Amino acid sequence: MSHNAWLALHVLGVVIFLGNIIVTAVWKVLADRTRNPAIVAYAQRLVTITDIAFTATGVILIIVSGQVLADDFGGVFSGPFWLTLGWSLFIASGVIWVGILIPIQVKQARLAKHFGNEGVIYSIPHNTLALAGEVGEFANIVKKIERGDLDIRDADVRMRLMMEWTDIFIYHMLIGGLIKVNPMMAYNYVRAENEKRFGQHD
């Protein structure tokens, strides 16, 4: 393929990659603002579908064409600093997507299956019980680490902790949304109250 053809594929990959991220974020926020379980569930399913169809496609195009085009500058890791930095940041974003965002999306997709029929998104008791269950699972892993059955240095153990922590975070934010809590305002308020009661600590 010619240089211009690879360049066109690279630009196409970037447009698909960034375009899907931006557009998906916009219509997902608009869907959530309706507070309609059926709409929220449908939007969440589309997030997963568009990630597979567009985000993954864009990533593949960027990686393949980027490697080819990078040879014009001496290679990805032996060329200019900006090229190495850009490539490193792109890899880092992929690690975050796979390690953090995908698990969150999987959990949201599971919840979305019940939104249309059961109205789970409006259920404080359901989400509270689910939160308690996830905290229990997290605590169970910590207990096994404490008594020596698991090793915190093990990557699989840390991944399990991360997954349970993510589940806790999701239910925490769902409950906060149901009771109309602004997380930052609540944090600042509680911190100020604790400083009055217990004194300020550096």
Number of strands: 0
Largest sheet properties: none
Which residue ranges are poorly predicted, with pLDDT under 50 across at least 5 consecutive positions?
A: none
Q: Give the helix proportion (percent range).
A: over 70%
Q: Mean of the pLDDT scores?
A: 84
Q: End-to-end distance, in Å?
A: 61 Å
Q: Counting H and I runs of at least 4 residues, what is the number of helices? A: 6
Shape: globular
Order of helices and strands: HHHHHH
Proportion in β-strands: under 5%
Tell me the structural class. Answer: mainly alpha
Q: Provide the gyration radius in Å.
A: 22 Å
The overall number of domains is 2
Short description:
The chain is mainly alpha-helical and 202 residues long.
SSE topology:
Elements: H1 3-33, H2 37-70, H3 81-118, H4 124-146, H5 155-178, H6 183-198
